[in-house]
Design brief:
With 359 residues, this protein is mainly alpha-helical. It is built from 25 helices and no strands.
Amino acid sequence: MDEIMSLAKSRDVADRERLLIRLVDLCEGNREELRPPRVEALLSQVFFDLIFQAEYDIRLRLAERIASADWAPPALINILSFDDIEIARPIIARSPILKDPDLIRILVEATLEHQVEVARRPQISSNVVDAILKTARPEVMAALAENESAQVSQDHLFDLVQKAREIAALHSPLAEHPGLNLELAGYLYAWVGAALRNSIAGRFDLDDKALEAALAVSVAQARAGEPSAKSRRLEETDEERRDRQLVAKLDMSGQLRPSYLLKALKERRLSLFIAALAALGRFETPAVRKAANGETATPLAMACASVEVDRVVFPDLLALVREINNGLPGGTEADDRRAFEIFAKTSSKSASSLFRKTT
């Protein structure tokens, strides 16, 4: 204590630095005594008085010493987090004192370099991730994509993958991100170069040609800026999402065949049948679902004809759909005769075109 009092009276730069370090040592050795609000307020004032007069190197060493301290005064930590980036970096990266509102404030008010450090901070919450995506700064989003410990949801990844269309810095970290799934890999596949395409295909054990064919429609929609893909995904049930992902994997690996439709129906899995038919025909899933629930079997017949379902199989397929779908699609005997006639006489290409026009 005598040494601290002596250093406090000195105006020498080296003494001021030693004073700060001795105070840190004192605080680290007496953490419990720092809890009362009155003591915390006094400690804050002492540190403020010192750092406002401190040289750059002193503030830097102080930041490194207290970056992980749980006893540090919040006001002091917040001031240091807005200091020059070399001083702020360890504070932003490690301080347990910084909470979500503090980090979001840095994203809104601080420099680009400070924002990047927030995106790199371990274990940032989904609220902070939301704020990063709202800033839409390429460098910050790239840092977020590299941060595998951040609480990044599938919706966050969807947004990042869509932004990867125009931000090349996102390509590599997203291709390696542990949260990337088959659907998002498909979108990303369209934006990246040949090397990363091979990496994505290898990671998901996909055939490049099958992948490009399977994702042609979804990629075209994304490039056209259609907003519905995300909202449709959010409206799915858990069963529908699982079935779609299973079908996507089969499709991308070249294993999805028209015969799989009958297999799905025999297992009484209507959503799996719908997902498979949509993937085989490159149709929108809601359009296929509408056909399965239609007033007549004609739209479903056109969809099945377009993917070259065997003519002998189609009557059984239609019967199974109705059996597990409360009698839908509906229709009279005359409607069914017309549906069977269309199925038998229409080429796959024409059937595909008719289906898209009618749904």
